[in-house]
Design goal:
alpha/beta
Amino acid sequence: MARAIIRVLRKACVPRYFSRFSNRIYDAWQCLVLLVVRQLEGKSYRRFADWLRDCRPLLRALGIARIPHYTTLQKFASRLPSGILDRVLRGFASEAVRAEASFILGIDASGFRPSKASSYYTRSLRPRKVRRYVKCTLAVELQSQLVCGFKARRLARHDVVDFKPVLEKAQPKPGFVVIADKGYDAEHVHEYVREELGGYAVIPPRHLEVPIWRTKGRYRKEMKRGYPERLYNQRNKDETVFSVVKRLMGEHLSSRLVRTQNRELALRLIAYNAHRLVKTT
């Protein structure tokens, strides 16, 4: 798995060092691979540093002679640029999908718990029930089932709000197809996909009882007249990706700050992509 991640890092042009004043003890590739493995193992920084003492093959594969202190990985994760993580996520899809193959994206959202505290404990602290979760919207390449982009949000917002940011991070090539459920049914979503990006959106319309002549929007009327249902059924793979991520690495986040929670989600998705790429090749 470490070799697959390094191959993607090399293709994504991730620099070895982020500063020319670096002490050059550990490079960015080594720290990033260790952070991804930590997500798969589900350990804290302290326990992961102790676990590395018994994992000599991984250290030899990365060329690490001395086990890093747990604060080294912790500080590197907090300073890691989010743009590089988005680039690495896209690199896995370009590694698996052939250049001549059609690009089919599926967009969906699910929630992650912001802490490991039990629901009984959180209810006892807050008499009024408040729905607290981290909403994560994914753009998944459905043929390879690899994540191309994501957007995390703490406040409850409509699904349509995160559609454009996630698609911008995925950077699909012209002629792509994007599939989403009824929560993303909006005319400006179809216009953005078709007129600005040169793609095709398959989004079932809401309110089927409303006749076509009373439906607003040219593309929404087209969807109400009919859409390829066999293609739309591929959207179920989005639920599969969320299920695998939560079963492999859990549905709770150990970070507390918004910035570090975003990094943790990105590293968790990179770990899923590496796991998926190794299993399918």
